[in-house]
Amino acid sequence: MNAFEALGLNEQLVQAITEMGFETPTPIQEKAIPVLLSGTTDFVGLAQTGTGKTAAFGLPLLHLIDVSQKHPQALIVCPTRELCLQICNDLMNFKKHVRGLNVEPVYGGASIVMQIRELRKGVQIVVATPGRLIDLIERKAIDLQKVKYVVLDEADEMLNMGFRDDIDFVLKNTILRESIWLFSATMPTAVKAISRNFMTNPIEVTMGKKNTANVNIDHQYFITPAHSRYDTLKRLVDFNPGMYGVIFTRTKADAQEVAERLVKEGYDIEALHGDLTQQQRDKVMGRFRAKSIQLLIATDVAARGIDVDGITHVINYELPDDIEVYTHRSGRTARAGKSGICITICHSREAYKIRSIEKMVNAQFHRLDIPSGKDVCRKQFFHFMDKLMSADISNGEYETYLPDLQEKFADVSKDEVLKRVAALEFNHFLKYYQNSDDLNTKTDSRERRDTGRDRDAGSFERKERSTFTRTVDNGFSRLFINLGTKDGFYKASFLQFILDESNLNKEVLGKIDIREMNAWVEVDKAAAGKMIKSMDGKKYNGRLVRMNEADGGFKRPTDEGRSDRSSRNEGGDRSEGRKRIPMRDKR
Ligand code: AMP
Fold this sequence. Notes:
By secondary structure, the chain is of the alpha/beta class. It folds into 4 domains: 3-206, Rossmann fold; 217-367, P-loop containing nucleotide triphosphate hydrolases (Rossmann fold); 373-433, no CATH class; 445-570, RRM (RNA recognition motif) domain (Alpha-Beta Plaits), CATH 3.30.70. Helices cover 42% and strands 15% of the residues. The protein contains 23 helices and 20 strands. The strands form 4 sheets. Strands 3-4-2-5-6-1-7 form a 7-stranded parallel sheet, with helices on both faces. Strands 10-11-9-12-13-8-14 form a 7-stranded parallel sheet, with helices on both faces. Helix 6 links the parallel strand 3 and strand 4. Helix 3 (27-36) runs parallel beside helix 4 and helix 4 (53-64) crosses helix 5 (81-94). The chain is globular and about 85 Å long. The protein binds adenosine monophosphate.
């Protein structure tokens, strides 16, 4: 008996995956498929991409669908358009021999009208990104009443992206749900909260250690003064001539600025940012995938869903605000059993974060010295020599030029030829690095204190929290707005609203804290003025919208909430807020 048949899957599915070359189930499939086939068990799978998790949930889902019923029976929610399409593509392949089973992807950035039309045709499995799903629910274009199975794929990514309220909303509105299947690479508290609040005795399966980064990744970090970050990046790229990498920055402005500077200096790099249309984005990704560009620079938001094989290096130009994000960044390399390097550039005051990340991913980080100019030149030189020696000279054409070449170089020694070849390739490097600075931060007692192992993760978390709640300069202004969930907003719809009104791009946004009456949103300093100007004084459902900078004279969120509540009647009646679907919790 075929190993997949033995797990309980039906013949048509087994036939399809056999044709796809699946011979034996992966560990997650072995554990998940028999449990999920029961249909009624809640399930938590801690697994990264590349483990075969799509088939682990996709196959049982396809097996359980009643093809005679033409309404949505299963809902798969995932963070990005790319993943949404990838899941759909896999399901299409798996269901090749099943008749009358329809799968439909719905995601933002594409025509909602077309998607509504497709949904009306009788779709049994909907694969959705949260923002678009909420939109469709609000338009009553999708019926979740009879959904039996809800799959949350890459749950940690969705929560990182601020979709927590939307996920809660979806779970509260799938009232006939029989089970939730949650997949996540990491298990932060927010993911645990979903399991606690919505699941009943879930079966938990962990592939590898919880919150563990891939063991094939070498984590390296380099400490440099803040003003030398860019030069350090350049030096590290130069020191790794075969690098095929992704560089992460915290803001879109940084990604663009670094990309522009590097392009000017002759590097093969493109930036992936939110200003690009989907088509432009696909083009950049196509070039990167085809390796016709060597480096990609992106913010975390813009890089969501990037799934490219063979990335040798991930570079944290800046550490992420939220250390959980580190796992996602580093996970872009060392895929499919290959090894990879994750480099972090930080300054001495950030070194304590490294300790927290080390603990989180349960891997040791190696502090390395930033190579000197001489080191870079030597490395480039040997790389070039290797290239020279592996050049393909088997083509007979060269033989025909040989007599001319010999004549031309008759009086030139071999040493001189070698030097001249090297000069062609290296003069610019040698010139650039001739008097190059030492970019390493001189270790002083203060840094040693900062990097000391006596700092625990708790102290980092305390620091992180204070970063958000005080006016620490993280490049963002923290803005207050007197709209909240009472006005019918969830994170995705709120984001859409403020971005539409201000005509700004989502890249300018940082953290969002949305409460019942008010919300706080971090906006890139350069864009904060525009955001306030376009929002403050507007009317929303008859209410006067107030937006202002929250940081000047900081008040803790609870205080702000209170102060706003006392004055909230000034702007109109909230009961006029937009209509929401009634929430009924299954459990
Ligand atoms: P995923 O983790 O779902 O992104 O899957 C990673 C890759 O492994 C995909 O290309 C799948 O088609 C492939 N795959 C999944 N399960 C198996 C299997 N049992 N045998 C061979 N390939 C598989």
